[in-house]
Amino acid sequence: MSRFLFTTLFSDDLGLPTRTVPIARELAKRGHEVAFCNPEAAPKKLIAEAGLHNLEPGPRPIPTVLPPFTQQIWNMDHFWAAYGYQDEGFLRGDCEGMMALVADYGPDVIVDSWNLNGCLAARALRKPLVSIIQADMHPNNPGLIWWKEPPKDIPTPVPVINRVLADYGLQPIGKTEELHVGDLTLVVGTPETDPVPGEADVVHIGPILWQKPGAKLPDWVGALDPKEPVVWVYTGNPRYFAPAVTWGDSIIVLYACIEALADEDVQVVLTTGHHDLPVEAASLPANFHYESYIPGIAMAERSDLLIHHGGHGASLTGPYTGTPAVIIPTFSERESNARRIAALGAADFVVPTEDESAEKHVSVEEVRAKVRQVLSDPSFATNARRLGEKMRRYGGASGAARLIEDFAARV
User: Fold this and answer.
1) 234-279 confidence digits (pLDDT tens)
2) CA 310, CA 298: separation in Å to the nearest integer?
3) What's the rounded Cα separation, in Å, for the pair 169 and 4?
4) Is it true that the peptide bond before 243 is cis, omega within 30 degrees of 0?
5) N or C: which end of the chain has fewer CB within 10 A?
6) What are 122-156's pLDDT values in tens digits?
7) How many other C-beta atoms are found inside a 10 Å radius of the C-beta of residue 311?
8) Domains of the chain
């Protein structure tokens, strides 16, 4: 049997744990030893709920070198620069902390999803690496904003990363996407939702979605009026670093939906993914029902429409359950997801605008109009069901676990 360490981006939301927990559980059921390492509150809850072990990383430094704030994150170079990795001390501190954790746990294989230091640690310690990515993270693709021509001055941490790589006798990279390619690279989604150029050495594994076995919806959901549409609003984390504003915050989704749906003839189920409802939104309209966390697949199946922030997992949940969506993407990666699902006819989307201070705004009128359109036009639900049928033909979590297990047996 093998020992696996799952690494994901240290971010206080559920997208990446939801993607990796089902695979980890499948490996554990096959008799392998599995651990995560994520210090953030919401992921820790989900990992514990799944009955999996979570290692606690040590203290982390704080980045002091950051590029100018912008809501437009063009590619993974830009993402990691905005994360703080143009600061060599921060990058080295993160990398050394991850390497110490890996050395202490002693995994046979590192399974990473969007944690650059997991990938760096695997290479520096000569550990086999399985990478679970979405298509926009692959170096053969044009980045997170593929529908626009990129500027020439995108911030990049590559010079700093290459100095760290050189210290461990590793070859330099041209862009950070190269580090997200593993010895085995699995792409979540399908060639339709997550296209990768044909020459890329990847395997599509379909959507990976998590719901605790036996999980049930609250009784009050079952008591909702079957004659009136149910709209599930999933915001994710409203504020990552309150009171500071970040490009991932979903508070704008919450505000827009409250205003747009308060007087509509719909029943709204609002969830925030193990996050508290902001105090200023505590007084909800009469047709809103709030719960911090609800089993996602079951809730999507009960819903007539999803409204969400554009996260990759949320974007695949709608088609998987045959439920159409209106997506309000809160930053570039999420807008990419929204555009791809909308192009397949399973959703529509409303892109927030920015004012001169880079503050985001959402058109309430546009949200209301698109909710009405998607609820009244059956083609959205038809396309979502058709896409979901194709998704279910892929291996999913069990197929991914089998690929990883076979890989571990070979290395």
Assistant:
1) 999 888 877 777 777 889 999 999 999 999 999 999 999 999 998 8
2) 19
3) 24
4) yes
5) N
6) 999 999 999 999 999 999 999 999 999 999 999 99
7) 28
8) 3-206+394-410 (3.40.50.2000), 219-391 (3.40.50.2000)
